[in-house]
Design brief:
Order of helices and strands: HH
Distance between the termini: 134 Å
Largest sheet: none
Oligomer: single chain
Helix content: over 70%
Number of strands: 0
Length: 104
């Protein structure tokens, strides 16, 4: 009796194995197609990114340049204002050469 059960189990295992092999064989082409499609998509996206990169770089450079120019302009304005204040203060504190009658 045990031998019959063992034989049945072996036959059932072989049937299941064949069934699985058939399903895998059927799915191989679909898997290959999906993989090929994924590769094509990746290539297309890479080309797109490579094409868009220069314009994106230009845009970022323009933004950075604008920010730097704004910062330099603000700094220049602040320095000029400070220089004007210092010059005005010095002129106010020092006597005028024409008024004091000094000759150089």
């Amino acid at each position: 009796m045990a031998k019959k059960k063992a034989k049945k189990a072996k036959k059932a295992a072989k049937r299941v194995e064949k069934k699985i092999k058939r399903k895998v064989a059927k799915k191989k082409p679909a898997i290959k197609r999906k993989a090929a499609k994924a590769v094509r998509t990746i290539k297309r996206k890479a080309k797109s990114v490579a094409t868009k990169a220069p314009s994106r770089i230009r845009k970022v450079v323009q933004q950075v340049t604008h920010a730097v120019e704004s910062a330099v302009e603000s700094t220049t304005h602040a320095v000029a204002t400070t220089a004007g204040v210092v010059a005005g203060t010095v002129e106010a504190v020092l006597p005028n050469h024409e008024e004091s009658g000094e000759k150089h």
